[in-house]
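User: Design a sequence. Structure:
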């Protein structure tokens, strides 16, 4: 799944952001791996974090907060 952003500023860190969020969610609750619907939600959230990261300069400073990612998803 892909997400469109208004303006890409820097792609540095987008993949790291996405995989970092994914792994963090798995560490918090490994049962996600056994539930396809929940796993899809985790992957969607991870991907949106990667997308948001591209809208800011840098890698670490560009990482989104949970609330920023949820807002982007309209939740």
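Assistant: Done.
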């Amino acid at each position: 799944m892909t997400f469109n952003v208004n303006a890409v500023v820097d792609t540095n860190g987008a993949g790291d952001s996405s995989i970092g969020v994914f792994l963090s969610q798995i560490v918090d609750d490994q049962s996600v791996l056994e539930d396809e619907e929940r796993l899809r939600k985790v992957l969607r959230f991870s991907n949106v974090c990667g997308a948001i990261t591209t809208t800011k300069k840098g890698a670490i400073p560009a990482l989104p907060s949970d609330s920023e990612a949820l807002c982007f998803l309209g939740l």
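Helices lie at 14-28, 36-53, 66-72. Residues 36-53 form the longest helix (18 residues).
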